[in-house]
Amino acid sequence: MGNLGYAATSYGVQGATVTGAHTLLTDATSAASVYVGMTRGRDHNLLHVVAESEADARAQFIEAMARDRADRGLTTATRRATEAVAGLTDDGPVKFVNEKIAALMHRAQTAEVQAARWQQVGTALADLRERETASRERARAAEEAARQRAVEVRAEVAAPVVSAAEAALSDWQDADAAEQRAADQVQAVSWFGKRRARTDHETAQARAQQARQHLTDEWGGPPKWSENSEAWMQRVTGPLVDGDSRVTEAEREHREARDALVGRPEQVQMARLAAYARAFGTERVHRNRENYLNANPAQQAARAAQAAKQAREDAELLATLTPAEATARIEQSQSEQAAREARRVERERALLHDVEQEHRTTPRREGPGLSF
To answer: How many helices and strands in the chain, by DSSP H and E?
Structure first.
């Protein structure tokens, strides 16, 4: 069964007391009328203002309070009505909704700043990639040129050294072979040819000793009994070629060029971190180094922009609803968020349980492990 009610002018209800009173503010409503209407109800008194906005409602109310300054109840009515209107925004659902709207707008602004920072990083990294491609190609070309130069210098230095060593070795080998042939001749000739054969042998022997001494003085001696000519050549000429200042300088330049090429990835990584630090701060990037290096700026910017857009849309929607409707929507959203968080926690708990279960069921290998 519905409640019964009636309508009357403020003049007509003076002195009346009811359970609840509703007063409609119009262009003709005076301060006295507001006072009368807002003091009739025992349980509650409600002032209705038809306005485009809260600011318009305040303006209408203040104008009404100024229409009848001679009324002795004006001061009290003004104070009470002002307190009532203020209560609509400072307490209760309206305050709760306004705080939520402010939080959503702050979230939108924060997300927009984050989106701008990610876009800044994305632009910087794109420029870095373009410059790094050119730098890497230059470094690769420089390394190849330095390597080729080192090979050429080594060949130029080695050529006369190897030639001299080959000549000395060949001279000794020829002299040694001649001595051996002269010695064989001494044994082969008749008694009448012995004297000449011995003379030839002594001459060949002296020549062989001279060649051996030269080989020893210049190259450290002839090949060892188990060493072939090629190995001996490498052994005696290698240190001389390696120690030549032209070779060492060319190889130093090659090492520097190679190090510059090999070190490019690390330099690029540092440049990437520097780009992130300029946008998000050095300390923050230092604490989350790997996360930033593995991030995708384009995706992060899109997510932040979407979050900002959603927050603004939510704030605008709440502003169009009544306090009760907005409160219900906020509570529903919070419940859904809490449910999503609970599901996330449950998924993580289940994943952890599966990992622990797998660890328990994996057979342990007993005995010594393999050594490498």
So the answer is: 12, 2
